[in-house]
């Protein structure tokens, strides 16, 4: 009896795995919460969310600011906007227009509490995602598809 249950479980797992074979895409339903399109930067896509998706993930934004750090004007952003990729590169999701998000490279100088001091990144005033960035990252790389 135990062997037959194990065999049934393995057969079911095999069927599930074959449905995810390399090169096969999930059928489009037209009901996706996010759409992707080229951003103009190699390896980075523009992610456009449906309003319901943004609400579901509780999406929030903050802004890149200019502040005096040790007497010098520097760009700073909220720590919650900082993302690391698998290679350790640092990014944030910029929000150039409503429900549109583009991953932007940032170079971190220091982290002080809830602020990241940047040596390079978007201009002051640029809106960045502070809540929901990991979900955007997953959407951009189609994690879970």
What does this structure look like?
- The protein has 145 residues and is of the alpha+beta class.
- The protein has one domain: conserved putative lor/sdh protein from methanococcus maripaludis s2 fold (Beta Barrel).
- Strands 1-2-8-7-6 form a five-stranded antiparallel β-sheet. Strands 4-5-10-9 form a four-stranded antiparallel β-sheet, with no helix packed on it.
What secondary-structure arrangement, pairings included, does this model have?
Elements: H1 2-18, E1 34-38, E2 45-49, H2 51-56, E3 60-63, E4 65-69, E5 72-78, E6 83-84, E7 90-97, E8 100-105, E9 107-112, E10 115-120, E11 127-131, H3 133-140
Which features characterize this protein?
145 residues, alpha+beta, conserved putative lor/sdh protein from methanococcus maripaludis s2 fold, five-stranded antiparallel β-sheet, 3 helices, 41% strand
CATH architecture: Beta Barrel
Tell me the structural class: alpha+beta
How many domains make up the coordinates?
A: 1
CATH class type: Mainly Beta
Unreliable residue runs: 1-28
Mean pLDDT: 82
Main sheet: strand order: 1-2-8-7-6
Largest sheet: 5 strands, antiparallel
Query: How many helical elements?
Result: 3
């Amino acid at each position: 009896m135990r062997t037959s249950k194990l065999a049934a479980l393995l057969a079911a797992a095999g069927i599930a795995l074959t449905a995810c074979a390399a090169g096969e895409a999930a059928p489009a339903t037209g009901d996706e919460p996010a759409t992707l399109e080229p951003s103009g930067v190699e390896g980075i896509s523009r992610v456009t969310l449906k309003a319901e998706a943004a609400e579901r993930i509780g999406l929030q934004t903050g802004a890149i600011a200019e502040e005096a750090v040790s007497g010098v004007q520097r760009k700073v952003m909220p720590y919650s906007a900082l993302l690391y990729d698998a290679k350790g590169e640092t990014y944030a999701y910029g929000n150039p227009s409503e429900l549109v998000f583009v991953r932007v490279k940032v170079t971190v100088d220091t982290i002080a509490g809830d602020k990241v001091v940047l040596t390079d990144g978007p201009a002051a005033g640029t809106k960045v995602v502070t809540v929901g960035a990991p979900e955007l990252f997953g959407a951009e790389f189609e994690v879970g598809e």
